[in-house]
């Protein structure tokens, strides 16, 4: 079986290489993609023979019993309905989920604005590093079963949070303190 997180890491690494190789030949990206596919080729063949699809997840049928209680079996493995299911379950758990979602969005936006002033490419990479795994797993049924799937999004969130704090500090330090602080 292929692990979803491995596929996401390969695609994210290929995207980062693509961003840095825009002005150069695509030779490195081609070889990276070729060797990534060759590395997973035996697994793709195994998945196709035993599960009917080269990209399949063998644990999907074994753990359905624990997902029945969460309502996941009524939905597809991948889709927008999983996003709405996650949001409604979070709101059912606590109404503070809505302000928390808005706060996370604000932190990402402010961090992006601050980093973009320093380096546009780094800002794009930091935001994509956070958003791609989150968007991937928020629409994926398995990503709703445990928070460990979102661990790859923690380092960029910390970076963007610190950048957001710098943004807010630079914006409001004169207003609240009344003098310049170096």
Can you walk me through this structure?
The protein has seven helices and no strands. By secondary structure, it is mostly helical. Helix 5 runs antiparallel to helix 6 and helix 6 (120-138) crosses helix 7. The radius of gyration is 20 Å and the shape is flat. The termini are far apart.
Q: Strand-residue fraction?
A: under 5%
Span of the ends, CA to CA: 54 Å
Q: Specify the structural class.
A: mainly alpha
Given as residue ranges, the uncertain stretches (5+ residues, pLDDT < 50) are 67-73
Overall pLDDT confidence: 76
Largest beta sheet, briefly?
none
Question: Which features characterize this protein?
Answer:
182 residues, 7 helices, flat
TL;DR?
The longest helix has 25 residues, at 27-51. Helices cover 69% and strands 0% of the residues.
Q: What's the structural blueprint in terms of helices and strands?
A:
Layout: H1 4-20, H2 27-51, H3 64-68, H4 80-93, H5 97-118, H6 120-138, H7 154-177
């Amino acid at each position: 079986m292929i692990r979803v997180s491995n596929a996401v890491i390969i695609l994210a690494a290929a995207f980062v290489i693509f961003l840095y190789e825009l002005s150069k030949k695509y030779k490195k990206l081609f070889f990276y993609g070729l060797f990534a596919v060759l590395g997973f080729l035996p697994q793709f063949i195994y998945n196709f023979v035993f599960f009917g699809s080269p990209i399949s997840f063998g644990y999907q049928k074994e753990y359905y019993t624990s997902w029945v209680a969460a309502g996941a079996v009524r939905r597809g493995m991948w889709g927008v309905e999983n996003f709405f299911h996650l949001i409604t379950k979070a709101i059912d758990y606590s109404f503070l989920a809505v302000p928390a979602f808005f706060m996370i969005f604000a932190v990402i936006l402010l961090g992006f604005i601050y980093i973009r002033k320093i380096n546009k490419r780094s800002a794009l990479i930091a935001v994509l590093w956070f958003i791609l795994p989150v968007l991937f797993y928020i629409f994926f049924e398995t990503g709703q079963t445990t928070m460990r799937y979102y661990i790859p999004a923690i380092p960029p969130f910390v970076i963007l949070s610190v950048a957001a704090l710098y943004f807010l500090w630079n914006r409001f330090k004169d207003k609240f303190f009344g003098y310049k602080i170096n």
